[in-house]
UniProtKB/TrEMBL annotation:
Keywords: Isomerase. The keyword Isomerase applies. Belongs to the aspartate/glutamate racemases family. It comes from Hwanghaeella grinnelliae. Pfam families: Asp_Glu_race. This is Amino acid racemase. Its EC number is 5.1.1.-. PANTHER family: ASPARTATE-GLUTAMATE RACEMASE FAMILY, GLUTAMATE RACEMASE. GO terms for molecular function: amino-acid racemase activity. Coiled coil: none annotated. InterPro entries: Asp/Glu/hydantoin_racemase, Asp/Glu_race, Asp/Glu_racemase_AS_2, Asp_race.
Length: 230
């Protein structure tokens, strides 16, 4: 079994979900009392937020993630899993400094969308995910168009993630708001919706909406277990 290297803490809530899912999926695959072979290096989210939001210093944030990735590599990991969607924007800068690969969340998600035969999906996540290019580039390479929410919708999604979900607050009114947003995306032509923040699947269940949703946490973990057991 390969050793999975987790970069966590962004947030601790989603990191805990990753740990649970990786172990559950490994046990389902192998039976008995098998569990995942992994190492976790958890960063202080406040330091990351200070760099990105308060200081606007992307270079410092990237350096922080690189330092963490090197620690994971030194711990014997065979590949790296970042337990956060938007941090994947740093992968192109970080990967050349490492000798082990990243398992990219957008690639795992894109392959699932492709298997479902969808051609146009809406993307929900924090602002840097929705307004950035890393998801759109990966999905475009697979023949999938990305629908980005309108500005007011992006404001609402980003605010509820940053002020509620990463603080372990999952409110029924926010859930209702997300359900209505997904209905609106569908009316505008989205065939499915990428839940492109690892906290959103903790708010929404697949049965909450009729539109296909792609829970990135689950898809990323499935891909990681598949790679670890290959």
């Amino acid at each position: 079994m390969k050793k999975i290297g987790l970069i966590g803490g962004l947030s601790w809530i989603s990191t805990a979900a990753y740990y649970r899912l990786l172990n559950q999926m490994t046990n389902q695959a192998l039976g008995g009392v098998h569990s995942a072979h992994l190492i976790l290096e958890s960063v202080d989210r406040q330091r990351y937020v200070d760099h990105v939001i308060h200081d606007g210093d992307e270079a410092a944030a990237c350096a922080m993630i690189l330092e963490t990735a090197k620690a994971v590599q030194s711990g014997g990991a065979d590949f790296i899993v970042i337990t956060c969607n938007d941090v994947h924007r740093f992968v192109p800068q970080i990967a050349p400094h490492l000798s082990i690969p990243f398992l990219h969340i957008a690639e795992a998600t894109g392959q699932s969308i492709k298997r479902a035969g969808l051609k146009r999906v809406a993307l929900m996540g924090v602002r840097k995910t929705m307004e950035g290019s890393f998801y759109q580039s990966v999905l475009s390479s697979l023949g999938i168009e990305t629908m980005v929410p309108e500005a007011q919708e992006r404001d609402y999604i980003d605010k509820t993630i940053m002020e509620e979900m990463v603080k372990d607050r999952f409110l029924p009114e926010t859930k209702s708001g997300y359900v209505e947003l997904i209905k609106a995306f569908h009316k505008r032509g989205a065939e499915g919706v990428v839940l492109g923040c690892t906290e959103i699947p903790l708010l929404l269940d697949a049965g909450d909406v009729e539109v296909p949703t792609f829970a990135t946490t689950d898809l990323h973990c499935r891909a990681a277990v598949q790679e670890a057991l290959a």
